[in-house]
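Input record (one chain):
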Amino acid sequence: MIHIDLQPTKIALGAAAAAAGAKAIRAAIEERGHANIIVATGMSQFELLAALVAEPGIDWSRVTAFHLDEYIGMPETHPASFRRYLKERFVSHLPNLRAFHFVRGDAADVDAEIERLNALIAAHPIDVTFAGIGENGHLAFNDPPADFAATEGYKRVELDEACRRQQFGEGWFPTLDDVPRQAISMTVQQIMRSALVILAVPDARKAEAVRATIEGAVTNLCPASILQRHPNCQLFLDPPSAGELARAPRSAAR
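The corresponding structure, as predicted from the sequence alone:
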């Protein structure tokens, strides 16, 4: 089931999503002494990450983090590297973070890197996954038609043209040809295993994907639609991203 939370602005959306996730992180630490989380990248996550690192009352020394994906062959020094993005916007702000397990897309042996990640995440049941939805409805880099059956934590994937055009359109690469064609991505089933999924999805360019995710059929042609089957998914929208919904949600009272 997807619970919708409509916020008046992109900044408010990020703050609300961060607050919801932070509440779950604190609860996990209180209950078990530690928390495991997944964080996402991209333009949709700017405001969320800024708010999350500023959330009070989180003992980050008890938090282990993963991220969703990384381009294959991408060095960390590249402006579009997700490792670089997360070190600048998340890890560098949390010097006492217990651990962050990065996806090393430029590993000499990609299969060995995937095996390493799968062993790590299997040992860390996830309390909160922070994610977005792609313009093509993708979750992580699981582009349509997504593999809903894969049970491993991470796998090698091919990026479709719509996904690659989104990365180019957001300004991460100088040309479309510069956008890699493969990535290491967290699988759909790994995301579904998270106790809580927090989706931060602003902007009108995501409106059609939001409509298909919430109001359409569950189909691998809109990978995010599988979250209709998740027991605890919270989707944070702003008015532009909610603009194609048949019944617009009310703004959440804060």
